[in-house]
Amino acid sequence: MPEKPRRSLRRRVSLLVVGVVLLLWAVSAAGVLWVASRDRAAPADAIVVLGAAQYRGRPSPVLRARLDHAVGLYARGMAPRLVLTGGIAEGDRESEAAVSRTYVLAAGVPDSSILLENEGRTTGQSLSAVGRLLAARGLRRVVLVSDPFHLFRASLVARRQGLEVLTSPTSVTGVWGRVFRQPGYLMGETFKAPLAAVLDW
User: Fold this and answer.
1) What's this model's pTM, rounded to 2 decimal places?
2) Into which CATH architecture does domain 33-196 fall?
3) Where is pLDDT greater, at 121 or 146?
């Protein structure tokens, strides 16, 4: 093939690849924002709370917001069980799940309603373990609780584990304001979500 047609072909292929990548990113961004702005909580088998940092036995503000939201859903009768997730981060003595358990017990949730997944260090690890934990009990339908921008990716991972997922962000108010306050978080999730659809992210 002459050099000029070869360059033209390479240019067209490059433009096609760039176009596909941009399309995937746009679909991912739309998914992140769509899920972030809607609370789809409905009666389910369990409420799954994704873990976040804890500081010397106390939930971080991010984790506390997730737990408060989940306790509210439990009080409304959305599910008879809370599944608390999160392993032990480097330098910690307790798992995120154990700290979460102490917190929700103080909020009035009975211990008999709590299940723990305290090994996972990532969203993928935690939800994989949650899938096994619930499958062993014949449970499948869950309300998934996390930060608004995190939920789209988390829901993709949870569905890969065979779970029927309803998403419930910690807040649906001020989501568009978060776009400007947390642009890095939003962008990170829009790139991670497509990978989570096919990989153990």
Assistant:
1) 0.86
2) 3-Layer(aba) Sandwich (3.40)
3) 146
